[in-house]
Amino acid sequence: MTDSKPIYTVLSLAMLLMVIAGCSTNVVVKGDFPAPLAHPLPLNADLVLTDEFRTYTFTDEKTKGKKLSFTIGEAQAMLFQEITDALFASVTERRALEGNATGELVLVPRVEEIQVARPFETQLKVFEVWIKYNLSVYDEHGQPIADWIMSSYGKTPTRFLTSDEEALNQAAIVALRDAGARLIVEFRRVPEIQAWLRSRAPATAGEEKQPT
Amino acid sequence: MMTWSKKALLTTLFILISGCTNTTVNEHRETAQPLRLSGEEKIIILGRRHAGHYETEPDFIRCIGQRLDNGHTVSVMDEQLFIDRLYPWFEPRTAPLKLGRLKYMLRDPLITERMADLGIRYMIWVDGNTETTDSSGSVSCAVGPGGGGCFGFATWDKASNYEAIIWDLRDLTDKGRVRVDAKGSSYLLAIGAPIPFIARVQGEACDGIGNQLRAFFGGENSTESAEER
Known about the structure:
By secondary structure, chain A is an alpha/beta fold. In chain A, helix 3 runs parallel beside helix 5. In chain A, 32% of the residues are buried. Chain B has a six-stranded mixed beta sheet with strand order 1-6-5-4-2-3. The longest helix of chain B has 16 residues. Classes of the chains: A alpha/beta, B alpha/beta.
Protein backbone atom coordinates (compact mmCIF):
# COMPACT_ATOMS: atom_id res chain seq x y z
CA MET A 1 0.00 0.00 0.00
CA THR A 2 2.69 2.50 0.88
CA ASP A 3 4.41 1.99 -2.52
CA SER A 4 1.33 3.09 -4.46
CA LYS A 5 0.96 6.46 -2.66
CA PRO A 6 3.49 8.37 -4.83
CA ILE A 7 1.73 7.10 -7.95
CA TYR A 8 -1.62 8.43 -6.72
CA THR A 9 0.00 11.77 -5.86
CA VAL A 10 1.58 12.06 -9.32
CA LEU A 11 -1.66 11.07 -11.04
CA SER A 12 -3.68 13.57 -8.98
CA LEU A 13 -1.21 16.36 -9.75
CA ALA A 14 -1.23 15.47 -13.44
CA MET A 15 -5.04 15.55 -13.54
CA LEU A 16 -5.10 18.85 -11.65
CA LEU A 17 -2.61 20.31 -14.15
CA MET A 18 -4.74 19.06 -17.05
CA VAL A 19 -7.83 20.71 -15.56
CA ILE A 20 -5.99 24.02 -14.98
CA ALA A 21 -4.40 23.93 -18.45
CA GLY A 22 -7.78 23.18 -20.01
CA CYS A 23 -9.15 26.45 -18.61
CA SER A 24 -6.45 28.80 -19.87
CA THR A 25 -4.82 29.62 -23.17
CA ASN A 26 -1.20 30.75 -23.25
CA VAL A 27 0.14 31.97 -26.57
CA VAL A 28 3.64 33.18 -27.34
CA VAL A 29 3.29 34.65 -30.83
CA LYS A 30 5.97 33.32 -33.18
CA GLY A 31 6.39 33.81 -36.89
CA ASP A 32 8.50 35.25 -39.67
CA PHE A 33 7.81 38.37 -41.68
CA PRO A 34 8.86 38.73 -45.30
CA ALA A 35 11.17 41.55 -46.40
CA PRO A 36 8.86 44.33 -47.64
CA LEU A 37 8.94 45.62 -51.19
CA ALA A 38 9.19 49.39 -50.67
CA HIS A 39 11.05 52.51 -51.72
CA PRO A 40 13.03 53.68 -48.69
CA LEU A 41 12.85 57.32 -47.67
CA PRO A 42 16.28 58.98 -47.92
CA LEU A 43 16.42 59.40 -44.14
CA ASN A 44 18.21 57.80 -41.23
CA ALA A 45 15.91 56.79 -38.41
CA ASP A 46 16.20 55.69 -34.80
CA LEU A 47 13.82 52.92 -33.78
CA VAL A 48 13.16 52.87 -30.05
CA LEU A 49 12.00 49.44 -28.91
CA THR A 50 11.57 49.61 -25.15
CA ASP A 51 11.75 46.56 -22.91
CA GLU A 52 8.02 46.97 -22.28
CA PHE A 53 7.38 46.78 -26.03
CA ARG A 54 9.73 43.83 -26.55
CA THR A 55 8.13 41.76 -23.81
CA TYR A 56 4.52 42.94 -24.16
CA THR A 57 1.98 40.41 -22.90
CA PHE A 58 -1.76 40.87 -23.12
CA THR A 59 -3.83 39.06 -20.51
CA ASP A 60 -7.57 38.69 -20.49
CA GLU A 61 -8.90 37.66 -17.11
CA LYS A 62 -12.38 39.08 -17.62
CA THR A 63 -13.67 36.02 -19.43
CA LYS A 64 -14.48 33.61 -16.60
CA GLY A 65 -12.93 30.18 -16.87
CA LYS A 66 -11.12 31.03 -20.13
CA LYS A 67 -8.08 33.02 -19.11
CA LEU A 68 -5.91 34.17 -21.97
CA SER A 69 -2.25 35.15 -21.92
CA PHE A 70 -0.96 36.50 -25.20
CA THR A 71 2.75 37.37 -25.48
CA ILE A 72 3.36 39.40 -28.62
CA GLY A 73 6.46 41.45 -27.70
CA GLU A 74 9.16 39.50 -29.52
CA ALA A 75 7.13 39.13 -32.72
CA GLN A 76 6.13 42.80 -32.91
CA ALA A 77 9.72 43.92 -32.27
CA MET A 78 10.84 41.71 -35.15
CA LEU A 79 8.12 43.19 -37.39
CA PHE A 80 9.06 46.81 -36.65
CA GLN A 81 12.75 46.03 -37.31
CA GLU A 82 11.89 44.43 -40.66
CA ILE A 83 9.51 47.21 -41.74
CA THR A 84 11.68 50.18 -40.73
CA ASP A 85 14.69 48.60 -42.47
CA ALA A 86 12.68 48.80 -45.69
CA LEU A 87 11.14 52.21 -44.97
CA PHE A 88 14.35 54.19 -44.29
CA ALA A 89 17.84 54.40 -45.74
CA SER A 90 19.29 53.25 -42.42
CA VAL A 91 17.93 52.41 -38.99
CA THR A 92 19.60 52.49 -35.58
CA GLU A 93 17.90 50.52 -32.85
CA ARG A 94 17.66 51.90 -29.32
CA ARG A 95 16.15 50.70 -26.06
CA ALA A 96 15.05 54.09 -24.68
CA LEU A 97 14.00 57.50 -25.96
CA GLU A 98 16.48 59.25 -23.68
CA GLY A 99 19.83 60.06 -25.27
CA ASN A 100 20.99 61.69 -28.49
CA ALA A 101 19.35 60.72 -31.74
CA THR A 102 21.61 59.42 -34.49
CA GLY A 103 19.01 59.78 -37.25
CA GLU A 104 16.79 62.56 -38.53
CA LEU A 105 13.66 60.79 -37.28
CA VAL A 106 12.98 58.90 -34.06
CA LEU A 107 10.16 56.33 -33.97
CA VAL A 108 8.72 55.02 -30.73
CA PRO A 109 5.99 52.39 -31.10
CA ARG A 110 3.73 51.59 -28.14
CA VAL A 111 0.85 49.16 -27.79
CA GLU A 112 -2.29 51.12 -26.91
CA GLU A 113 -4.72 48.23 -26.87
CA ILE A 114 -5.14 44.61 -27.87
CA GLN A 115 -8.46 42.85 -28.29
CA VAL A 116 -8.88 39.15 -28.89
CA ALA A 117 -12.15 37.48 -29.87
CA ARG A 118 -12.51 33.71 -29.67
CA PRO A 119 -15.31 31.62 -31.24
CA PHE A 120 -17.06 31.00 -27.90
CA GLU A 121 -17.36 34.79 -27.44
CA THR A 122 -18.57 35.75 -30.91
CA GLN A 123 -20.35 32.58 -32.10
CA LEU A 124 -18.29 32.94 -35.30
CA LYS A 125 -15.90 30.21 -36.38
CA VAL A 126 -12.93 32.55 -36.42
CA PHE A 127 -10.29 33.84 -34.03
CA GLU A 128 -9.78 37.59 -34.32
CA VAL A 129 -7.02 39.88 -33.08
CA TRP A 130 -7.03 43.70 -33.09
CA ILE A 131 -3.90 45.63 -32.20
CA LYS A 132 -3.88 49.38 -31.72
CA TYR A 133 -0.43 51.00 -31.83
CA ASN A 134 0.60 54.53 -31.06
CA LEU A 135 3.62 55.41 -33.16
CA SER A 136 5.25 58.53 -31.74
CA VAL A 137 7.52 60.29 -34.22
CA TYR A 138 10.14 62.87 -33.12
CA ASP A 139 12.71 64.89 -35.01
CA GLU A 140 16.44 64.69 -34.29
CA HIS A 141 16.10 67.40 -31.59
CA GLY A 142 13.43 65.43 -29.72
CA GLN A 143 10.57 67.65 -30.89
CA PRO A 144 7.35 65.66 -31.46
CA ILE A 145 6.20 65.45 -35.07
CA ALA A 146 3.25 63.08 -34.85
CA ASP A 147 1.40 60.59 -32.70
CA TRP A 148 -0.03 58.17 -35.19
CA ILE A 149 -2.71 55.83 -33.88
CA MET A 150 -2.60 52.79 -36.12
CA SER A 151 -4.96 49.83 -35.87
CA SER A 152 -4.46 46.45 -37.42
CA TYR A 153 -6.62 43.36 -37.69
CA GLY A 154 -6.13 39.66 -38.25
CA LYS A 155 -8.44 36.67 -38.31
CA THR A 156 -8.09 32.96 -38.81
CA PRO A 157 -10.69 30.29 -39.42
CA THR A 158 -10.43 27.52 -36.81
CA ARG A 159 -10.84 24.61 -39.14
CA PHE A 160 -7.36 24.78 -40.67
CA LEU A 161 -5.64 24.64 -37.35
CA THR A 162 -5.16 22.11 -34.65
CA SER A 163 -5.49 24.12 -31.45
CA ASP A 164 -6.71 27.43 -30.05
CA GLU A 165 -3.08 28.44 -29.44
CA GLU A 166 -2.11 27.81 -33.04
CA ALA A 167 -5.19 29.64 -34.34
CA LEU A 168 -4.50 32.68 -32.14
CA ASN A 169 -0.86 32.69 -33.20
CA GLN A 170 -1.95 32.67 -36.84
CA ALA A 171 -4.48 35.50 -36.29
CA ALA A 172 -1.82 37.56 -34.49
CA ILE A 173 0.66 37.08 -37.34
CA VAL A 174 -2.01 38.25 -39.81
CA ALA A 175 -2.67 41.30 -37.60
CA LEU A 176 1.06 42.06 -37.40
CA ARG A 177 1.43 41.73 -41.17
CA ASP A 178 -1.50 44.13 -41.49
CA ALA A 179 0.28 46.60 -39.19
CA GLY A 180 3.40 46.27 -41.37
CA ALA A 181 1.35 46.91 -44.52
CA ARG A 182 -0.14 50.06 -42.97
CA LEU A 183 3.29 51.30 -41.94
CA ILE A 184 4.72 50.84 -45.44
CA VAL A 185 1.72 52.24 -47.30
CA GLU A 186 0.49 54.98 -44.96
CA PHE A 187 3.50 56.29 -43.03
CA ARG A 188 4.32 59.04 -45.50
CA ARG A 189 0.61 59.92 -45.85
CA VAL A 190 0.12 60.85 -42.18
CA PRO A 191 -0.53 64.62 -42.50
CA GLU A 192 1.98 65.71 -39.82
CA ILE A 193 4.70 63.44 -41.18
CA GLN A 194 3.95 64.52 -44.75
CA ALA A 195 4.22 68.18 -43.71
CA TRP A 196 7.52 67.51 -41.92
CA LEU A 197 8.91 65.64 -44.94
CA ARG A 198 7.88 68.54 -47.22
CA SER A 199 9.48 71.07 -44.90
CA ARG A 200 12.82 69.25 -45.00
CA ALA A 201 13.37 68.98 -48.71
CA PRO A 202 11.28 68.37 -51.79
CA ALA A 203 13.36 65.26 -52.41
CA THR A 204 12.13 63.46 -49.32
CA ALA A 205 8.53 64.60 -49.53
CA GLY A 206 7.57 63.34 -52.72
CA GLU A 207 7.48 60.23 -53.12
CA GLU A 208 4.52 58.95 -54.55
CA LYS A 209 6.86 56.52 -56.16
CA GLN A 210 4.95 53.74 -54.55
CA PRO A 211 1.23 53.15 -54.86
CA THR A 212 -0.68 54.29 -51.81
CA MET B 1 -8.85 -8.55 -61.41
CA MET B 2 -11.91 -7.29 -59.58
CA THR B 3 -15.18 -8.90 -60.61
CA TRP B 4 -18.13 -6.81 -61.84
CA SER B 5 -20.16 -7.63 -58.74
CA LYS B 6 -17.38 -6.39 -56.46
CA LYS B 7 -17.02 -3.20 -58.54
CA ALA B 8 -20.79 -2.59 -58.36
CA LEU B 9 -20.77 -3.17 -54.60
CA LEU B 10 -17.85 -0.77 -54.07
CA THR B 11 -19.46 1.88 -56.29
CA THR B 12 -22.76 1.62 -54.41
CA LEU B 13 -20.93 1.84 -51.09
CA PHE B 14 -18.99 4.89 -52.29
CA ILE B 15 -22.21 6.62 -53.44
CA LEU B 16 -23.84 5.83 -50.09
CA ILE B 17 -21.03 7.18 -47.95
CA SER B 18 -20.49 10.22 -50.18
CA GLY B 19 -23.86 11.84 -49.47
CA CYS B 20 -25.44 14.01 -52.19
CA THR B 21 -24.03 17.17 -53.77
CA ASN B 22 -25.52 19.33 -56.53
CA THR B 23 -23.06 21.50 -58.40
CA THR B 24 -23.73 24.27 -60.95
CA VAL B 25 -20.89 25.79 -62.94
CA ASN B 26 -21.24 28.91 -65.12
CA GLU B 27 -18.53 30.51 -67.19
CA HIS B 28 -18.05 33.68 -69.16
CA ARG B 29 -15.22 34.02 -71.68
CA GLU B 30 -13.91 37.19 -73.25
CA THR B 31 -12.33 35.16 -76.06
CA ALA B 32 -12.88 31.75 -77.58
CA GLN B 33 -9.13 31.22 -77.95
CA PRO B 34 -7.48 29.14 -75.22
CA LEU B 35 -5.17 31.10 -72.92
CA ARG B 36 -1.53 30.10 -73.41
CA LEU B 37 1.55 30.32 -71.24
CA SER B 38 4.95 30.51 -72.82
CA GLY B 39 8.34 29.48 -71.47
CA GLU B 40 8.64 30.11 -67.76
CA GLU B 41 5.32 31.93 -67.39
CA LYS B 42 3.13 30.99 -64.45
CA ILE B 43 -0.36 31.44 -63.07
CA ILE B 44 -1.04 32.71 -59.58
CA ILE B 45 -4.34 31.84 -57.90
CA LEU B 46 -5.26 34.14 -55.00
CA GLY B 47 -8.12 34.03 -52.50
CA ARG B 48 -10.05 37.14 -51.50
CA ARG B 49 -9.65 37.86 -47.77
CA HIS B 50 -10.82 41.46 -47.40
CA ALA B 51 -14.38 40.75 -46.20
CA GLY B 52 -15.06 40.82 -42.49
CA HIS B 53 -17.34 37.80 -42.16
CA TYR B 54 -15.61 35.24 -44.36
CA GLU B 55 -12.43 34.54 -46.24
CA THR B 56 -11.67 32.28 -49.18
CA GLU B 57 -10.03 29.20 -47.72
CA PRO B 58 -6.30 28.69 -48.48
CA ASP B 59 -6.81 24.93 -48.88
CA PHE B 60 -9.47 25.58 -51.53
CA ILE B 61 -6.99 27.74 -53.45
CA ARG B 62 -4.39 24.93 -53.17
CA CYS B 63 -6.98 22.44 -54.42
CA ILE B 64 -7.71 24.53 -57.55
CA GLY B 65 -3.97 24.97 -58.11
CA GLN B 66 -3.43 21.22 -58.00
CA ARG B 67 -6.21 20.67 -60.55
CA LEU B 68 -4.83 23.36 -62.87
CA ASP B 69 -1.09 22.63 -62.67
CA ASN B 70 -0.33 19.90 -65.16
CA GLY B 71 3.44 20.10 -64.80
CA HIS B 72 4.25 21.05 -68.40
CA THR B 73 1.96 23.56 -70.17
CA VAL B 74 0.38 25.12 -67.05
CA SER B 75 2.43 25.99 -64.00
CA VAL B 76 0.83 27.44 -60.85
CA MET B 77 2.79 29.36 -58.22
CA ASP B 78 2.18 28.78 -54.50
CA GLU B 79 -0.17 31.46 -53.13
CA GLN B 80 1.64 32.19 -49.84
CA LEU B 81 5.03 32.34 -51.55
CA PHE B 82 3.68 34.94 -54.01
CA ILE B 83 2.08 37.03 -51.23
CA ASP B 84 5.34 36.96 -49.25
CA ARG B 85 7.48 37.94 -52.25
CA LEU B 86 5.19 40.91 -52.93
CA TYR B 87 4.60 41.90 -49.30
CA PRO B 88 2.80 44.19 -48.46
CA TRP B 89 0.96 44.69 -51.77
CA PHE B 90 -1.27 41.60 -51.71
CA GLU B 91 -2.35 41.64 -48.07
CA PRO B 92 -6.13 41.74 -47.36
CA ARG B 93 -5.91 45.53 -46.84
CA THR B 94 -3.84 46.33 -49.94
CA ALA B 95 -4.68 43.70 -52.58
CA PRO B 96 -6.20 45.20 -55.76
CA LEU B 97 -9.94 44.53 -55.99
CA LYS B 98 -10.26 45.81 -59.57
CA LEU B 99 -8.05 45.78 -62.66
CA GLY B 100 -7.77 49.56 -62.52
CA ARG B 101 -6.13 49.37 -59.11
CA LEU B 102 -3.72 46.67 -60.34
CA LYS B 103 -2.80 48.91 -63.31
CA TYR B 104 -2.04 51.70 -60.83
CA MET B 105 0.04 49.35 -58.66
CA LEU B 106 2.02 48.18 -61.66
CA ARG B 107 3.19 51.75 -62.29
CA ASP B 108 5.65 51.05 -59.49
CA PRO B 109 8.75 49.51 -61.10
CA LEU B 110 9.53 47.55 -57.90
CA ILE B 111 6.25 45.65 -58.16
CA THR B 112 6.45 45.21 -61.95
CA GLU B 113 10.01 43.87 -61.75
CA ARG B 114 9.14 41.45 -58.96
CA MET B 115 6.15 40.16 -60.95
CA ALA B 116 8.38 39.73 -64.00
CA ASP B 117 11.04 37.91 -61.91
CA LEU B 118 8.37 35.50 -60.71
CA GLY B 119 7.14 35.01 -64.28
CA ILE B 120 3.49 35.68 -63.46
CA ARG B 121 1.35 35.97 -66.61
CA TYR B 122 -2.18 35.28 -65.36
CA MET B 123 -3.68 36.22 -62.00
CA ILE B 124 -6.81 34.33 -60.95
CA TRP B 125 -8.80 35.80 -58.04
CA VAL B 126 -11.17 33.45 -56.26
CA ASP B 127 -13.86 34.93 -54.03
CA GLY B 128 -16.30 32.95 -51.91
CA ASN B 129 -16.43 30.33 -49.19
CA THR B 130 -18.10 27.17 -47.93
CA GLU B 131 -20.46 27.38 -44.99
CA THR B 132 -22.85 25.21 -43.05
CA THR B 133 -26.31 26.52 -43.86
CA ASP B 134 -28.44 24.25 -41.70
CA SER B 135 -28.04 21.47 -39.12
CA SER B 136 -30.38 19.35 -37.03
CA GLY B 137 -30.51 16.18 -34.94
CA SER B 138 -28.05 14.96 -32.33
CA VAL B 139 -25.80 12.02 -31.55
CA SER B 140 -24.94 10.94 -28.01
CA CYS B 141 -22.08 8.68 -27.06
CA ALA B 142 -21.47 6.92 -23.73
CA VAL B 143 -18.74 4.72 -22.29
CA GLY B 144 -19.28 2.30 -19.41
CA PRO B 145 -17.44 -0.62 -17.78
CA GLY B 146 -19.02 -3.02 -20.26
CA GLY B 147 -18.16 -0.97 -23.36
CA GLY B 148 -19.39 2.09 -25.19
CA GLY B 149 -21.48 3.23 -28.08
CA CYS B 150 -23.30 6.05 -29.83
CA PHE B 151 -26.94 6.54 -30.68
CA GLY B 152 -28.74 9.18 -32.70
CA PHE B 153 -29.03 10.89 -36.04
CA ALA B 154 -27.64 14.23 -37.19
CA THR B 155 -27.77 16.02 -40.52
CA TRP B 156 -26.22 19.21 -41.82
CA ASP B 157 -26.26 21.11 -45.13
CA LYS B 158 -23.31 22.88 -46.65
CA ALA B 159 -23.15 25.38 -49.49
CA SER B 160 -20.12 26.46 -51.50
CA ASN B 161 -20.28 29.62 -53.64
CA TYR B 162 -17.16 30.75 -55.45
CA GLU B 163 -16.30 32.99 -58.38
CA ALA B 164 -12.94 33.02 -60.17
CA ILE B 165 -11.83 35.95 -62.35
CA ILE B 166 -8.86 35.65 -64.70
CA TRP B 167 -6.66 38.71 -65.29
CA ASP B 168 -4.03 38.77 -68.02
CA LEU B 169 -1.05 40.74 -66.73
CA ARG B 170 0.44 41.22 -70.19
CA ASP B 171 -2.33 43.49 -71.51
CA LEU B 172 -4.12 43.99 -68.14
CA THR B 173 -7.46 42.69 -69.33
CA ASP B 174 -10.17 40.47 -67.90
CA LYS B 175 -10.07 37.12 -69.75
CA GLY B 176 -13.10 35.46 -68.21
CA ARG B 177 -14.81 34.25 -65.09
CA VAL B 178 -16.15 31.01 -63.67
CA ARG B 179 -18.84 30.71 -61.02
CA VAL B 180 -19.58 27.54 -59.09
CA ASP B 181 -22.40 26.86 -56.64
CA ALA B 182 -22.48 23.53 -54.82
CA LYS B 183 -24.92 22.33 -52.17
CA GLY B 184 -24.99 19.09 -50.28
CA SER B 185 -26.39 17.32 -47.24
CA SER B 186 -24.36 15.10 -44.92
CA TYR B 187 -25.71 12.60 -42.40
CA LEU B 188 -24.40 10.87 -39.30
CA LEU B 189 -26.26 7.76 -38.26
CA ALA B 190 -25.23 6.18 -34.97
CA ILE B 191 -26.53 2.79 -33.84
CA GLY B 192 -23.68 1.56 -31.67
CA ALA B 193 -20.97 2.82 -34.03
CA PRO B 194 -21.36 6.17 -35.88
CA ILE B 195 -21.71 5.82 -39.67
CA PRO B 196 -21.04 9.07 -41.56
CA PHE B 197 -22.45 9.92 -45.01
CA ILE B 198 -20.39 12.97 -45.89
CA ALA B 199 -21.14 15.16 -48.92
CA ARG B 200 -17.97 16.49 -50.64
CA VAL B 201 -19.40 19.97 -51.13
CA GLN B 202 -16.16 21.95 -51.17
CA GLY B 203 -14.39 19.14 -53.06
CA GLU B 204 -17.08 19.19 -55.76
CA ALA B 205 -16.81 22.99 -55.99
CA CYS B 206 -13.04 22.63 -56.40
CA ASP B 207 -13.49 20.00 -59.13
CA GLY B 208 -16.06 22.19 -60.90
CA ILE B 209 -14.05 25.41 -60.87
CA GLY B 210 -10.70 23.63 -61.43
CA ASN B 211 -11.91 21.68 -64.47
CA GLN B 212 -13.51 24.78 -66.00
CA LEU B 213 -10.33 26.80 -65.51
CA ARG B 214 -8.35 23.99 -67.14
CA ALA B 215 -10.59 24.38 -70.16
CA PHE B 216 -9.64 28.09 -70.33
CA PHE B 217 -5.99 27.08 -70.58
CA GLY B 218 -6.53 24.58 -73.34
CA GLY B 219 -7.00 21.53 -71.13
CA GLU B 220 -9.94 19.16 -71.05
CA ASN B 221 -12.71 19.62 -68.56
CA SER B 222 -14.36 16.28 -69.13
CA THR B 223 -15.45 14.00 -66.32
CA GLU B 224 -12.97 11.36 -67.48
CA SER B 225 -10.03 13.69 -67.05
CA ALA B 226 -11.30 14.66 -63.60
CA GLU B 227 -11.56 11.04 -62.59
CA GLU B 228 -8.04 10.28 -63.78
CA ARG B 229 -6.59 12.51 -61.08
